[in-house]
Amino acid sequence: MFFATPLISAALMMLTSVAALPQPEAGGLMGRQSSCPSGSYQYNQTACVACPAGNTCNGGSDTPQPCDTGLYQPNTGSTSCMQTQPGFFTNQRGSTTPFACPAGSYQPYSRQAFCYGAPKGRFQQQSGKSFLCATCCGWAAMDTNNVNPVNCTGSTPYAWPNSGDGCISSPTSCTRAATCAQAADGTCPGETIRG
């Protein structure tokens, strides 16, 4: 025969009270997170996941936000994007790395989605640059997006500095340059054009 003692009665009452509490929905503790830390997002409404590279996450969203054009983010778990520097660009949202402006082009500004082509009379032999070089005396750049200036020879051996008109037969008062190439560090042989 079983007799309830005051201690057993109290324990039974406590178990009954706990059973009457609301129980978690399906999924238990894996149910929807109320908030995720900055640099992460709520994946499938169940877990906080580090923000993927190329995106930012403020912690209160279930969708990473891609970095806009002109911005990038190489790291995971980020809350902000980085600006491209002069000479570089990103032309797609969600970029993880900036792209260098190719030879024949330049970009003098930061946070850009494109590069400018070298106009006539200017050239750029190297990639990732924020400036252009003007042609030297006796050299010309007759097209756009010029990588290398043309050495004027033959019946048209002359050209003014910054010449986009091409080589000419009339003598010029400038002293002809033997070469017109950039140094390894990008230094122009003549005038440097910025902006």
Please characterize this protein's 3D structure.
There is one protein chain. The protein is mostly beta strands. The chain has two domains: 33-100; 101-195. It has one helix and 15 strands. The chain has one helix spanning 6-20, and strands at residues 40-43, 47-50, 55-56, 65-66, 71-72, 82-83, 88-89, 99-100, 105-106, 116-117, 122-123, 131-134, 139-140, 150-151, 192-194. β1 (40-43) and β2 (47-50) form a beta hairpin. The protein is rod-shaped and about 80 Å long. Residues 1-20 form the signal peptide. Keywords: Signal.
Secondary-structure map:
Elements: H1 6-20, E1 40-43, E2 47-50, E3 55-56, E4 65-66, E5 71-72, E6 82-83, E7 88-89, E8 99-100, E9 105-106, E10 116-117, E11 122-123, E12 131-134, E13 139-140, E14 150-151, E15 192-194
Antiparallel strand pairs: 1-2, 3-4, 5-6, 7-8, 9-10, 11-12, 12-15, 13-14
Work out the radius of gyration.
Answer: 33 Å
Structurally, the number of domains stands at 2
Question: Are there runs of 5+ residues with pLDDT below 50, and where?
Answer: 1-31
Strand content: 15-25%
Strand order of the largest sheet: 11-12-15
For the sheet with most strands, the description reads: 3 strands, antiparallel
Mean pLDDT: 86
The secondary-structure class comes to mainly beta
Overall morphology: rod-shaped
Q: Number of helix segments?
A: 1
What string gives the helices and strands in order?
HEEEEEEEEEEEEEEE
Number of strands: 15
What level of helicity do the residues show?
A: under 10%
Distance between the termini: 99 Å
